[in-house]
Please model this.
Amino acid sequence: MLRLLTKKLTELFLVLFFVTLIVFFTFRLLPGDPAQMRLGMDPAPEAVAALTIEMGLDKPLIVQYGNWIADVVRGDLGKSMFDGKPVTELLADKIPKTFELAVLGALLSIMIAVPFGVLATLNKNSWIDKLARVFSLFGFSIPAYWLAVLLMLLFAYQMHWLPAGGYVSFTESPSGHMKALVLPVVTVGIINSAQIFRFLRSGMLEVISQDFIRTARAKGVSEWVVIGKHVARNAMPSLITIVALNFSLLLSGMVITEQIFAWPGLGWLMIQSILSRDYDVVQAAVLISAVFIVIINLIADLINAWLDPRIKYN
Model:
């Protein structure tokens, strides 16, 4: 297990290093001068040049990258180029909002996908299996923005049950906070449950067809013990992998969902910062997203190694 952990940590640092290279140099290829955008329409060339020097954008890109990495290692993610706020302060405000939405959306997707997946597996090619597959095809096919708008039109504008969007602090109004969460959480949960269902069903069907399952049934082991003890445990690694992947992607920023429902999370912050060419904010947001992704996948790999000794030994 220690050897596996060492290997995964090495891969983690290599991934983060390449992420810093890609986000830093790719973002600077985008058109638009941050200094000019900050000064507004038709600024004086002298003012643009002075602000460019002040922001450190006059130095060679490799020097800018080195300075940024040195600051990140010291825990300094920089300041916003437009409002002067520390990036850590902005992230501390946005990340909990995205985390809350991602956790609730992931839990809802698991609550939908796991029962459907088990029932579809136990009743292969029955009407239950066909209904579940139609639902998963629906979740795979529809765009997230279309489902979000559909739910908004139905529950906010037609029935007037829920707010169409916006954020309400829990301390300000617990009921308002929960109502504002419903539509984005349902959108995320439905979209992601389709992927989890497909992986779980295919994984369980693969395990059920193996010889040791037939042997357990031949010995008279009850069906529920076969499914719960043997099939579920052996299908668990694929389920954990897809759940971890979906959750890490949710944490990295649900850009579309947050934009539609005006949820001020990490995805919303990234879009606003990209549009305004706020380099430090975008770089820090992408880097934090990458850290979330690699750590969550590392945890998933360690859990899978614990569940399946073959992974650990290999």
About this structure: Residues 15 and 294 are 8 Å apart (CA to CA). Residues 91-264 form a domain with the MetI-like fold fold (CATH 1.10.3720.10).
